[in-house]
Structure formats: C-alpha cells, structure tokens
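Summary of Year 1 activities. Much of the first year was spent building the evaluation harness for sequence design. The harness presents a backbone, in tokenized form, and records the residue chosen at every position. We chose the following record to illustrate the format because it has been used consistently in internal testing since the harness was completed.
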C-alpha cells in the first residue's frame, strides 16, 4: 500500500450536499501532489478530510498502512499551510517559528537549533527579530511554510498558499516551495485553482470537477494525453481550441468543408460516422506555413497580442473563435485573412456527447 491511500472517499455535508464522489488516490512517500480544478470542485474538502478537519462520510483513508478515518488531526502527522498565513502578529519571526515546539515543551536549545536550521532553508535568517507586519507577503508566506516544516511531519497540506501574493511573488514562491520540498522531502498535497501552479510544481496532478476526479497524471500526461474535453481545456494557457465538427464519409467536416483525416487519426473515428464530434488543437501546435500531414484552415485575424516570446492571434473561422500562438516576428495584421496548418498528430477529437477523447496517443 502507498504512503497515503484514499479509497472511494466521499463527502456528504450535513445539508445533504455531496461535495466529493468516490475519490481514489494512492500517494507515494515524498510525492508532490497537486489537486487542481475550478472553484467549488471539492479540492479543499478533500484536503480537509486528509487533515482530519472534516469527517469522511464514506470510504477509507490510510496513512502509512494505518486506518486513519477516525484519527484526530494531531495524530495524523500532518501540517497544514493555509491561504491566510495565520501568523501571530505580536510575535517575532523566531517566536512564530518556535511557537508550536514551545507548546510541546521542547527544550529551548533544541528549539533554537531547529528554528535556525528552518530559517536557513527558507532564507529567513536575517529576519528572525522582525514582526510579521515588517515582512513582505512572500516572506510572511515563507514563515507560514516554516511553521509547518519545523514540525518534521510526514505530510504537508497546502491550501492555495500563494493566492495572497502578487503575480511576481507567486512565481518566486512557486519555485521556492518546490525547492523546499526537495530539501525536506515530505509528502506534499497542494491545492490550487491555477493550472500553471499545478503544471510547474507537481509530480502528479489530480484534476477535479464537480466533486469527481477527471484525471490523475504527470503534468506531461495531462497536457499531451487529456482524457476528456474538460482536462484538455483546463490544462494549458491559452486553452486548447475547440471547434464543433462532424464525421462524414471518413472525413472531419468543419464549417461545411471536409478535411481528410489522414492516416494518423484513422481507425478510432470510424465508429463516429455521421456523429458530432469536437475538434481540438492547442494554440501552440499550429504553423503559419503549409506542411505535409496537416489540416489547413483559413481564418480572419480579429486581434493580436504581442507578449514578447510569442504573439497570441485571435481569429475567426466562419464563426468559430480560436487562438493561435505565433512567432512575434510573424505577427499578422489585424483584419487580414491568413491560412494556418494543424499537424494531424496535434489534433484531439472528442465525443461531443460524452466529452471523452476519441483518439488516444
Ligand atoms: P475553492 O477553490 O473555491 O476553495 P474547492 O474546490 O476547494 O473550491 P470546496 O471548498 O471543497 O471547493 O467545496 C466543494 C463544494 O462543497 C462547494 O460546492 C461548496 O459550496 C460545498 N461546501 C463546502 N463546505 C460546505 C459545508 N460546510 N456545507 C455544505 N456544503 C459545503
């Protein structure tokens, strides 16, 4: 059995709301797992059940092979870092870090040793005398993380810990948290609604929607092998483009025009003859040049956004709005017609009814 094992976990709140359905996940020791999904999908509820702050309505939870449903929070060996840093404003950074250990009656010498070592890992050694109000948001967040790691617990639980920081601080703290995780090695579960955080930090990501797991996988798997329309649209920025299409005569029909499927998509599509499907491709998968083994489309440029390393081009394809990522040196003019190619191998086809992916790579 894995280090943390969640078997068919369900949460039904006292008002009858079923917030989490049959959640199954095995987490290995030392893994960095991210729960990601839109607001209300059940991420925090699941995290709080793991922490012991919320009862598990149905299912079984094991920590290191031990049945843990009934364990009290402090018996679980978990530490939680919340969105709000929950620091003591009247205590110095040193005392904030030391607080939990003092309560446990740990020896002053040992506390000092641990506080200094933790402050070093977090780059807080020069700030130990300061009060939280004299720290930046990022530094406060590091103290909050420090209060968790100083306890040397087996599992860190983090609920949107970066959401109070500005965009630049978030990028810095993202890498700092993964770096701390590497140094400390504790199993970490991190909750966010931000797919970029999930992609950059996780060993494995759990994508959730409406209380159900949609897919579990590495960032690479989720990006290249999404199992359904939701995951394909949630992972990636700008998101994957989707166009309503139909399978007709073995071809994909888009906006009245038939496109040969080529060899790549082949067999899986035959069962969809005459049915509606969704044609998906990522903004970065296109080229502005003709190429073999690709669909070719024409479109009208509505808006361009130069971002530096690339330009996002918003185009209209007979009423379908899509985004293309292009080399900034080749930014097309607004209100012009362009053609672009989508390689067969970059195309995702989805069942319009079930929203599941049809072509698996
Ligand atoms: P967010 O990113 O907004 O925090 P989340 O994915 O973490 O969202 P949860 O906080 O787990 O979502 O909530 C999941 C669902 O359960 C939501 O629809 C929420 O309204 C509902 N919910 C949360 N707490 C309770 C409660 N105490 N009683 C009833 N329903 C609740």
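For this record, the design step produced the sequence shown next.
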């Amino acid at each position: 059995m894995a280090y943390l094992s969640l078997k068919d976990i369900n949460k039904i709140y006292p008002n009858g709301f079923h917030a989490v359905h049959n959640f199954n996940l095995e987490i290995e020791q030392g893994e960095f797992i991210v729960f990601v999904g839109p607001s209300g999908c059940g991420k925090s509820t699941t995290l709080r059940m793991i922490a012991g702050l919320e009862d598990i309505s149905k299912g079984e939870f094991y920590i290191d092979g031990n049945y843990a449903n009934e364990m009290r929070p402090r018996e679980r060996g978990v530490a939680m870092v919340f969105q709000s840093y929950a620091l003591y404003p009247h205590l110095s950074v040193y005392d904030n870090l030391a607080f939990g250990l003092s309560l446990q009656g740990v020896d002053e010498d040992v506390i000092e040793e641990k506080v200094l070592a933790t402050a070093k890992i977090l780059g807080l050694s020069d700030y130990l005398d300061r009060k939280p109000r004299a720290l930046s948001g990022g530094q406060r967040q590091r103290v909050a993380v420090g209060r968790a790691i100083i306890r040397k617990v087996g599992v860190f639980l983090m609920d949107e810990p970066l959401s109070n920081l500005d965009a630049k601080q978030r990028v810095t703290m993202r890498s700092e948290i993964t770096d701390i995780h590497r140094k400390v090695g504790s199993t970490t579960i991190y909750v966010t609604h931000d797919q970029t955080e999930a992609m950059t930090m996780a060993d494995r990501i759990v994508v959730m929607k409406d209380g159900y797991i949609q897919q579990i996988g590495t960032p690479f798997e989720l990006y290249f092998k999404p199992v359904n329309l939701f995951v394909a649209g949630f992972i990636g920025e700008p998101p994957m483009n989707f166009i309503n299409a139909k399978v007709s005569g073995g071809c994909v029909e888009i906006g009245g025009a038939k496109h040969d499927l080529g060899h790549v998509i082949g067999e899986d599509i035959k069962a969809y003859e005459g049915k509606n499907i969704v044609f998906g491709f990522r903004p970065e998968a296109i080229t502005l040049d003709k190429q073999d083994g690709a669909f070719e489309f024409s479109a009208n440029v509505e808006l361009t956004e130069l971002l530096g390393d690339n330009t996002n081009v918003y185009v209209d394809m007979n009423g379908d709005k899509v985004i293309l990522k292009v080399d900034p040196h080749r930014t097309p003019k607004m209100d012009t017609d362009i053609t672009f190619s989508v390689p067969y191998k970059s195309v995702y086809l989805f069942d319009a009814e079930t929203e599941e992916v049809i072509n698996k790579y």
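The chain has a mean pLDDT of 91. Quantitative recovery figures across the full test set are reported in Table 2.
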